[in-house]
């Protein structure tokens, strides 16, 4: 049963990611990307990482994708980008990245064949994550907050509306 | 691995929800009438004939608010992890979160002071400063 | 009765849909009373059959998709709000032994779903290809994400007191005192965030009739409009049930009523409160709404977390 659910969600993930790449409509591609992230979250859940699964939904599907949808809405180009996307999706564009990705896949397959990739998940509770973050990794959390602060200030100054007298 | 026993009711419930939504989307297609009028295919704009299309560029404020949201949501997740384990991490963890929240509030104060959270239009700002003086 | 039995699963799905449909009538009647008029009172006893009549009518309306809209996404948008709110009910602990699943991360699951439901509004407005709808959905998106930031934070005080994300454990932790007392700041902020997330009055600027006609669901008609409509009432029920679980002791109460009845009674009171808020308060200006969220509510929730943490840690030893 678990195995079936795993293959189902992994399949959904792979197919929707393929649709993201091949799609020409930016909004449809984003929707497929959201589906792909949800499927990835479900895989996390099946592996016992419940906290990571829900954070994946909250952060990636619920926050970062909203930002992407916003950008698509703001640029709001419609038909002309679809034409542009179609012209970009030629063999010259995708053959290089795909070959490199295929190489990675072969490497992964080799690792699995060696039996090194069978990390059977154990359940990680949110409490354990919290204790780890606010115990041994104390400094990392503070560094993360500094990094986010810098990101915030940088983002504002890049996207600041022009001052007009 | 996850407890599959707990998954079954969830799967059945989700399937039932999908059936309900499917019926709601599909049934009116069979039951409803079809009508054709002169203005059926035009966007509704309160009875006024539409001018132009929806290719409107928006204020960058909307984009900024989405960025702020992503960053503050990320910081909130650290607070989620602290909230559930704060008894175990004790005062050391508390001091850490005080620093964390202080950085967060400093970021918020910075945005506030440079006016990134001010959504008034230029006209509203002018009128309000006139009233205050 | 055990959690997750077939009777539970289908019973809960059926009752939440029925309750939400009935809420349309309840809201119209109550607002009628508070505004000194009658409301729907003709069909059946007290006008109760109005819901059935509306439902039949809406099923026989023309299923019209605008030719200028993005057809597949136009269909998905109302489905998202229905699915997100209906599946939110799986983690609600209605009573001991009644519920769909007993999930250790119930609260986070609820927050995750509410962060997904924003897509419904955004996509609906964007693919409609209508200027008013587009403006409405941009407003809705900016408002929803602004209030979502502190929605999660406002309930973390409850998590700190209960020490768990599991909603059943949170209810059990309220045996001595309901969390609405120690977490009064959390309750107030969560209520405001919930109303803003549902975009109900006074925070209904995305569909403000005077300026945007109907906002994001402008081009929707028939059942697809009905789904947005029922979706709103479903999320009212969901948020009310969540508030009862987190702040008002869930199914707990004196023994003269069974736990399930306590839960339903409290949830109905919270729903009536939401309706009262709608009929009593005027709409703020858009810039006031946004700066209220960022400049007032967010600092308040952060301070609430610090105060709660300090108080609990200092009384622990």
In short, what is this structure?
Chain A has 165 residues and is mainly alpha-helical. Chain A has 7 helices and no strands. In chain A, α1 (2-22) runs antiparallel to α2 (26-46) and α2 (26-46) packs antiparallel against α3.
Would you kindly provide a written description of the structure presented here, covering whatever features stand out?
The complex is a heterotrimer of chains A (165), B (133) and C (317). Helices cover 80% and strands 0% of the residues of chain A. With 165 residues, chain A is mainly alpha-helical. In chain A, helix 2 packs antiparallel against helix 3. Chain A starts with a helix and ends in a 6-residue tail after the last helix. The model of chain A has no long low-confidence stretch (mean pLDDT 79). By secondary structure, chain B is mostly helical. Chain B has two domains: 31 residues; 77 residues, NADH:ubiquinone/plastoquinone oxidoreductase, chain 3 (Methane Monooxygenase Hydroxylase, Chain G, domain 1, Up-down Bundle). In chain B, 70% of the residues lie in helices and 0% in strands. Chain B has three helices and no strands. The mean pLDDT of chain B is 78. Chain C is 67% helix and 0% strand. Chain C is built from 13 helices and no strands. Chain C is globular. The N and C termini of chain C lie far apart (40 Å). The mean pLDDT of chain C is 84. At the B-C interface, helix 1 and helix 2 of B face helix 1, helix 3, helix 6, helix 7 and helix 11 of C.
Percentage of residues in strands of chain A: under 5%
SSE string of chain B, helix = H, strand = E?
A: HHH
**What is the overall silhouette of chain A?**
globular
Strand content of chain B: under 5%
The main pleated sheet of chain B reads as:
none
Q: Number of domains in the coordinates of chain B?
A: 2
